[in-house]
Amino acid sequence: MLFQSTATTLLLFTNLISASAFTPHHVPLKASPVTTTSLFKKKASGKKKTSSGGKGFGAAVKQINKEDSFPYAGTIRPGVQSPQKVVIDESIMKPDYAIDGRPKGKSGLLPWIIEVKTPEEIVKMKASGRVAREVLDIAGAAIKPGITTDEIDNIVHEETLKRGAYPSPLNYHGFPKSCCTSINEVICHGIPDSRPLEEGDIINLDITCYLNGYHGDCSEMFVVGEADPKAKELLQTTYDCWVKAMEFVEPGKDYKDIGAIIEDHVVERGFTTVKNFCGHGIGSTFHTNPNIFHYRNNEPNGKMAPGHTFTIEPMICEGLSQCLNWPDDWTATTIDGKRTAQFEHTLLITAEGVEALTGKIETSPLQFWEKESEVHKGFWLGTTPAAREKAAELTAKKLE
């Protein structure tokens, strides 16, 4: 799950200190007249709301009036939201925001101060990552024409609880559902509702599970029925730039260099990369350092080291990459209504490379973008020898 980019490099130190308690961590952008107040999106006026920086994954959700005259960019419209769920099972450990919606976790004061996980913490993160993967696969298998995103959310909620975990998005800064479902032109943070999926839709499911005090975060694309050629190209490009970026990860490298790898790959193929949102550190806190920008940048976000856990989650667009923020204060779409795609893993850096803590498992499907990748064919589980061996084994079984 993403965090939205805001603020300026010039104001970095001031903004880090003054950032509101409602923001899980603060993200600098290229120099622009944006300040920390931009973290909270203003209500819709008669014009499209766009931003080169806006609110983070925060602020209370408001129900959209379906008769509102808001100028939506594409064909997706908000449906009816079912009542927000509450997890009452006392045996399930809940994050600190589960009741009041306010996360209490802190990031390092400076963006290059990054938590190093202990061996015990890594064991817990592997467990939460495994749960997130299982839930994502089960929810993804239910995708078909006619199912609503609210029904998908119900699956995510119940499957998460079955595994003794809490669905991390639920009530995070007031978010009303247990996952994000982003269809076609929706870049991220789509709220599950009554809209049935239609033949040809592409949808991103963003799943995060909180188990034993740690979050595991992943997202993946799914096609409803058959994808048209342009959608296939978008999905393939998004997947390949993502894998190429993850292949780059190893101790000693700069986090800032991830962005150029992604941007160069997609621009060569006629696509664009969203700059409003970024990947993030993750652990006992949902969003923390480092910030992972998916475009060329020179931000001082530190060097990679064993024990770091974070996400890479590029959002790639068919057309313009600017965002249009809906009146619900969550949903972000492309400004031109063209489609967008995204993939995400929670990653762990080790002395030998990087591992996907939310990597695919024995029961996971092998998708066309994995079979046809020009970067890495088959499942991608990391760059360590053990991850390479396991990925080759799982892929071979799927191709038998």
UniProtKB/TrEMBL annotation:
<dbReference type="GO" id="GO:0005829">
    <property type="term" value="C:cytosol"/>
</dbReference>
<feature type="binding site">
    <location>
        <position position="344"/>
    </location>
    <ligand>
        <name>a divalent metal cation 2</name>
    </ligand>
</feature>
<feature type="binding site">
    <location>
        <position position="217"/>
    </location>
    <ligand>
        <name>a divalent metal cation 1</name>
    </ligand>
</feature>
<keyword id="KW-0645">Protease</keyword>
<keyword id="KW-0378">Hydrolase</keyword>
<keyword id="KW-0479">Metal-binding</keyword>
<dbReference type="InterPro" id="IPR036005">
    <property type="entry name" value="Creatinase/aminopeptidase-like"/>
</dbReference>
<feature type="domain" description="Peptidase M24">
    <location>
        <begin position="124"/>
        <end position="351"/>
    </location>
</feature>
<feature type="binding site">
    <location>
        <position position="217"/>
    </location>
    <ligand>
        <name>a divalent metal cation 2</name>
    </ligand>
</feature>
<feature type="binding site">
    <location>
        <position position="206"/>
    </location>
    <ligand>
        <name>a divalent metal cation 1</name>
    </ligand>
</feature>
<dbReference type="InterPro" id="IPR000994">
    <property type="entry name" value="Pept_M24"/>
</dbReference>
<comment type="function">
    <text>Cotranslationally removes the N-terminal methionine from nascent proteins. The N-terminal methionine is often cleaved when the second residue in the primary sequence is small and uncharged (Met-Ala-, Cys, Gly, Pro, Ser, Thr, or Val).</text>
</comment>
<feature type="binding site">
    <location>
        <position position="344"/>
    </location>
    <ligand>
        <name>a divalent metal cation 1</name>
    </ligand>
</feature>
<feature type="binding site">
    <location>
        <position position="287"/>
    </location>
    <ligand>
        <name>substrate</name>
    </ligand>
</feature>
<feature type="binding site">
    <location>
        <position position="189"/>
    </location>
    <ligand>
        <name>substrate</name>
    </ligand>
</feature>
<keyword id="KW-0031">Aminopeptidase</keyword>
<feature type="binding site">
    <location>
        <position position="313"/>
    </location>
    <ligand>
        <name>a divalent metal cation 2</name>
    </ligand>
</feature>
<protein>
    <recommendedName>
        <fullName>Methionine aminopeptidase</fullName>
        <ecNumber>3.4.11.18</ecNumber>
    </recommendedName>
</protein>
<dbReference type="GO" id="GO:0046872">
    <property type="term" value="F:metal ion binding"/>
</dbReference>
<feature type="binding site">
    <location>
        <position position="280"/>
    </location>
    <ligand>
        <name>a divalent metal cation 2</name>
    </ligand>
</feature>
<dbReference type="InterPro" id="IPR001714">
    <property type="entry name" value="Pept_M24_MAP"/>
</dbReference>
<keyword id="KW-0732">Signal</keyword>
<dbReference type="GO" id="GO:0070006">
    <property type="term" value="F:metalloaminopeptidase activity"/>
</dbReference>
<dbReference type="GO" id="GO:0006508">
    <property type="term" value="P:proteolysis"/>
</dbReference>
<dbReference type="GO" id="GO:0004239">
    <property type="term" value="F:initiator methionyl aminopeptidase activity"/>
</dbReference>
<feature type="signal peptide">
    <location>
        <begin position="1"/>
        <end position="21"/>
    </location>
</feature>
<dbReference type="Pfam" id="PF00557">
    <property type="entry name" value="Peptidase_M24"/>
</dbReference>
<dbReference type="InterPro" id="IPR002467">
    <property type="entry name" value="Pept_M24A_MAP1"/>
</dbReference>
<comment type="similarity">
    <text>Belongs to the peptidase M24A family. Methionine aminopeptidase type 1 subfamily.</text>
</comment>
